[in-house]
């Protein structure tokens, strides 16, 4: 049992480098954590300075000596045993413990290792010399409350990255590796009938889906690190994308993204969807908000996200988000009000709308049309290419859009056919994409030599759909 002694401002910590409370403009130092002793003669400590040390040396913030620790423990304490410090990274505060000792510092019984650091989390127990010699419990102000154990034991949750229709996305850090991820929390509420279908409640089925989603591995598909499904929410740990959404990239231009850059982006999206379809996964919710960019520059790696959502949330919710419009939804879904059975061609339609909007900055279907409803325009395939929006777009690109936005799914190009379209018969494009994601991921290279170093075995698994 841990004995926690109430905290008061300590007199041992040298208060040299204060972070003053700016809001109140009074000389009150900001506390970012506390150390609560688990041994009678140790003092509690408010963590105020950015670095804090414990050891035998008199220049440590907490000095261990014959007065506060027994001689048999004192002899295994190093001059500087451990250091606790905070770093403000990426608008988040991360708190670390670094082990400086020979005999070891332990967090919740696990040895940190000399010269190594771990991310400290609320409630962590710190031991010295041996796991049983607990000295302090760490408490921080940024608490990860209400998180399932599977998440809180592995990750430290920090700042909000953004909010979507289904929930919020936060920046998290893996406690062991210190790597950053995005954690999406999808709250199960009255708007979202999660796991409604009887067979969907089957834990074995859910775990199987999770296994498939976690095993996906493609440079243009967001890697799903972990999924935790609880009664109230689904927590998804995702690869972090720091370049924002394709949606924001499009709106930063007046008339769509310049064609050469749009082509690099769209080609990667097609490769991702081709890969997902090969794995038996239909995305069902492709839209620029679900396509993320790794960097804020024109030729960047693009990744498709949110492809697993339909496994966890009700189908209709995914297809038309609570407050959203079915702008990217295929006509066959609208015609059957989301209750039919569809092929992966529903993704191809969404790709057509994405290509249209990426190149022109405008949507092909409008809610403001006085004569036709949005659903009528989509189900009848009524759209145009206004000169004002498409004046800088090539005829080949327009031809591709026309062949994708075909109401009959059996007459719509397939993803394989899109990859063979003349718009992609472009050596500069394929070289750039192969430099970004590796030439082994280029499905159809039109005979260009994209990587001279690469030797292709006749029986290689590399996918080629062109002769
Ligand atoms: P919707 O809920 O309609 O799908 P959305 O896709 O914008 O909309 P989320 O996917 O929940 O909603 O994303 C919310 C915010 O979090 C967005 O600003 C998005 O850019 C950000 N975000 C989502 N996933 C990641 C990620 N892997 N890395 C970095 N930021 C992310």
Question: What topology does this entry show?
Answer:
Layout lengths: L19 E2 L4 E4 L3 E5 L7 E3 L3 E5 L6 E2 L7 H4 L7 E8 L2 E8 L5 E3 L2 E2 L5 E3 L5 E4 L5 E7 L8 H4 L2 E9 L3 E8 L5 E8 L15 H13 L8 E6 L3 E7 L6 H6 L7 H20 L12 E3 L8 E3 L4 H4 L2 H5 L11 H5 L9 H16 L13 H7 L6 H4 L4 H10 L10 H5 L7 H11 L30
Parallel strand pairs: 5-6
Antiparallel strand pairs: 1-2, 3-4, 3-13, 5-7, 7-8, 8-11, 9-10, 9-12, 12-13, 14-15, 15-16, 16-18, 17-18, 19-20
Helix pairs in contact: 5-9, 5-14, 9-12
Bound molecules: adenosine-5'-triphosphate (ATP).
Describe this structure in words.
Helix 5 (259-278) packs across helix 14. This protein folds into three domains: 2-144, Tumour Suppressor Smad4 (Sandwich), CATH 2.60.200.20; 149-239, Phosphorylase Kinase, domain 1 (2-Layer Sandwich), CATH 3.30.200; 246-441, Transferase(Phosphotransferase), domain 1 (Orthogonal Bundle), CATH 1.10.510. The radius of gyration is 28 Å and the shape is elongated. The chain has 467 residues and is α+β, with helices and mostly antiparallel strands. It has helices at 71-74, 149-152, 203-215, 246-251, 259-278, 309-312, 315-319, 331-335, 345-360, 374-380, 387-390, 395-404, 415-419, 427-437; strands at 20-21, 26-29, 33-37, 45-47, 51-55, 62-63, 82-89, 92-99, 105-107, 110-111, 117-119, 125-128, 134-140, 155-163, 167-174, 180-187, 224-229, 233-239, 291-293, 302-304. It has a six-stranded antiparallel sheet, with no helix packed on it. A five-stranded mixed sheet has the order 6-5-7-8-11, with no helix packed on it. The protein has a five-stranded antiparallel sheet with strand order 14-15-16-18-17. A hairpin with a 5-residue loop joins strand 15 and strand 16. The chain is built from 14 helices and 20 strands. The chain is 24% helix and 21% strand. Residues 161-166, 169, 182, 184, 222, 238-241, 244-245, 289-290, 292, 305-306, 321, 324 line the site of adenosine-5'-triphosphate.
């Amino acid at each position: 049992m841990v004995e926690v002694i109430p905290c008061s401002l300590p007199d041992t910590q040298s208060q040299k480098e204060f972070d003053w409370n700016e809001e109140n403009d009074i000389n009150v130092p900001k506390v970012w954590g506390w150390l609560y002793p688990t041994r009678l003669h140790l003092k509690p400590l408010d963590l105020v300075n950015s670095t804090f040390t414990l050891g035998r040396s008199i220049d440590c913030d907490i000095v261990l000596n014959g007065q506060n620790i027994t001689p048999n423990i004192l002899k295994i304490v190093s001059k500087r045993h451990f250091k606790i410090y905070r770093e403000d990274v990426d608008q988040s505060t991360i708190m670390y413990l670094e082990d400086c000792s020979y005999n070891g510092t332990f967090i919740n019984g696990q040895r940190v290792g000399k010269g190594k650091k771990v991310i400290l989390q609320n409630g962590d127990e710190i031991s010295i010399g041996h796991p049983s010699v607990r000295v302090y419990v760490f408490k921080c102000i940024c608490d990860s409350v209400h998180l399932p154990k599977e998440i809180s034991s592995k990750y430290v949750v920090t700042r909000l990255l953004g909010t979507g229709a289904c929930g919020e996305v936060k920046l998290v850090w893996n406690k062991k590796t210190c790597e950053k991820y995005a954690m999406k929390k999808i709250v199960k509420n009255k708007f979202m009938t999660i796991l409604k279908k009887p067979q969907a409640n089957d834990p074995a089925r859910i775990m199987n889906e999770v296994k498939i989603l976690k095993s996906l591995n493609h440079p243009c598909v967001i890697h799903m690190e972990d999924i935790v499904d609880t009664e109230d929410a689904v927590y998804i740990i995702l690869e972090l994308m720091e370049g924002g959404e394709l949606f924001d990239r499009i709106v930063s231009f007046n008339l769509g993204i310049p064609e050469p850059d749009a082509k690099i982006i769209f080609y990667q999206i097609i490769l991702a969807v081709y890969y997902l379809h090969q794995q038996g996964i239909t995305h069902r919710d492709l839209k620029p908000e679900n396509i993320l960019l790794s960097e804020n520059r024109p030729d960047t790696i693009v990744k498709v996200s949110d492809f697993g959502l339909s496994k966890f949330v009700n189908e209709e919710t995914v297809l038309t988000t609570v407050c959203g419009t079915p702008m990217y939804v295929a006509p066959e879904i609208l015609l059957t009000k989301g209750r039919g059975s569809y092929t992966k061609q529903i993704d191809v339609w969404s790709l057509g709308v994405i290509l249209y909007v990426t190149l022109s900055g405008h949507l092909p279907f409008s809610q403001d049309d006085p004569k036709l409803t949005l659903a009528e325009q989509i189900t009848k395939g009524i759209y145009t290419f206004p000169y004002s929006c498409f004046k800088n777009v090539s005829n080949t690109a327009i031809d591709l859009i026309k062949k994708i936005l075909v109401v009959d799914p059996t007459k719509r190009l397939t993803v394989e056919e899109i990859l063979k379209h003349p718009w992609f018969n472009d050596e500069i494009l394929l070289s750039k994409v192969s430099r970004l994601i590796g030439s082994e991921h280029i499905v159809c290279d039109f005979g260009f030599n994209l990587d001279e170093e690469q030797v292709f075995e006749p029986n290689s698994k590399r996918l080629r759909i062109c002769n």
